């Protein structure tokens, strides 16, 4: 392991750990005000939607709404399964299968 | 000091996190493979997964290492990409308040998109459990480490695992977590706003800022809608 690379990695680790530990340690002492609790309640939903939407609607870095977008089609199938209260494995499995079929079709296999 | 008191809760955390690791594993593999291609040694590649434990930041560092970027530039980028952890951590505060300092410090290290989502969903549904949280984190950490090592080993054999459509595993994982949360008008509005803003911001703003921008906007809309509801009553 090269010294500068190891040092850079350790600094990355420190920066990342800071983002993880800052809120629970600093806010822990003072407690979270009520208006903030109201905001924070929605963080998981907002975070998940913000991670999913660009991955499905703009997988190549530009907006793709149509049948040519395999991510969107497979995502729609997975979302439908989740909405019908199927377990996570079924939701993910069905999406993956659709994705694989579309990929293979696209490659002409 | 750090010991599991309730093995059943720990196991439940592992069990609920495992299905999501289907989405993490290909990324660990890909990271291991790409890191070799930009010239990191196997030891450096694995060292980064064990200490940083953050997929997006690790991926983005690779082209920077390749381009000879410096320590400050690379660490600052990692800091910016991971700023979303501040929001995630803040939403865990009410649940983690009673933990001892070593436990807080320890459990925070394992915070990642997937382990956080499983932990908070369970906490909001049936209550928070420290050992459950630990089980989620341990599963995520071990998966990331093992998939990185495997990626390093496979490095010369597979050229691009993401070309197989395996990158779809990530959004599929998150969909399985998101859809069950959409139980009322407010949560649907939060989801819709986050989706629209994140796509627009992803197209307009470079880097991973779109996550924070979309999250803050959607969360504000959710809080505002709930305020209206309270005022109406």
Verbal overview:
The complex is a heterodimer of chains A (109) and B (233). Chain A is built from 5 helices and no strands. Chain A is mainly alpha-helical and 109 residues long. In chain A, α4 runs antiparallel to α5 (88-107). Chain A is extended and about 50 Å long. The mean pLDDT of chain A is 87. Chain B is mainly alpha-helical and 233 residues long. Chain B is 76% helix and 0% strand. Chain B contains 12 helices and no strands. Chain B has helices at 7-17, 21-37, 42-51, 55-66, 71-81, 84-96, 101-109, 113-126, 130-154, 169-178, 185-204, 209-232. The longest helix of chain B has 25 residues, at 130-154. Chain B is globular and about 60 Å long. The N and C termini of chain B lie far apart (48 Å). Chains A and B meet through α1, α2, α3, α4 and α5 of A and α3, α4, α5, α6 and α7 of B.
Helix content of chain B: over 70%
Poorly predicted regions of chain A: none
Rg calc of chain B: 19 Å
The largest interface is:
A-B, 75 and 94 residues
**Can you tell me the overall shape of chain B?**
globular
Rg over alpha carbons of chain A: 20 Å
Q: What structural keywords apply?
A:
heterodimer; A: 109 residues; mainly alpha; B: 233 residues; 12 helices; 76% helix; globular
In brief:
Chain A contains five helices and no strands. With 109 residues, chain A is mainly α. The longest helix of chain A is centred in the N-terminal third of the chain and has 28 residues, at 3-30.
């Amino acid at each position: 392991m090269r010294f500068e690379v190891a040092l850079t990695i350790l600094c990355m680790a420190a920066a990342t750990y800071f983002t993880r530990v800052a809120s629970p340690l600093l806010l822990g002492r003072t407690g979270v005000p009520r208006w903030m609790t109201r905001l924070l309640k929605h963080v998981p939903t907002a975070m998940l939607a913000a991670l999913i939407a660009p991955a499905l609607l703009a997988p190549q870095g530009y907006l793709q709404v149509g049948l040519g977008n395999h991510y969107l089609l497979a995502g729609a199938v997975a979302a439908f399964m989740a909405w019908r209260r199927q377990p996570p494995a079924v939701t993910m499995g069905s999406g993956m299968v659709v994705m694989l079929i579309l990929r293979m079709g696209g490659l002409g296999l | 000091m750090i010991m599991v008191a309730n093995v059943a809760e720990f196991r439940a955390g592992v069990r609920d996190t495992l299905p999501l690791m289907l989405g993490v594993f290909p990324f660990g593999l890909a990271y291991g493979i790409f890191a070799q291609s930009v010239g990191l040694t196997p030891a450096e590649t694995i060292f980064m997964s064990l200490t940083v434990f953050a997929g997006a930041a690790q991926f983005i560092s690779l082209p920077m290492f390749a381009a000879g970027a410096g320590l400050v530039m690379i660490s600052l980028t990692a800091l910016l990409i991971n700023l979303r952890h501040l929001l995630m951590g803040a939403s865990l505060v009410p649940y983690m308040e009673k933990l001892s300092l070593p436990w807080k410090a320890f459990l925070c290290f394992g915070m990642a998109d997937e382990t956080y989502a499983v932990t908070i969903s369970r906490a909001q549904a049936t209550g928070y459990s420290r050992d459950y949280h630990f089980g989620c984190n341990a599963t995520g950490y071990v998966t990331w480490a093992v998939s990185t090592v495997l990626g390093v080993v496979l490095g010369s054999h597979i050229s691009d695992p993401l070309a197989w459509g395996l990158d779809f595993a990530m959004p599929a994982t998150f969909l399985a977590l998101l859809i069950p949360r959409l139980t009322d008008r407010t949560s649907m509005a939060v989801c819709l706003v986050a989706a629209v803003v994140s796509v627009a911001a992803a197209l307009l703003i470079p880097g991973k800022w779109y996550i924070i921008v979309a999250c803050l906007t959607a969360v504000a809309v959710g809080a505002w809608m709930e305020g209206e509801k309270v005022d109406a009553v």
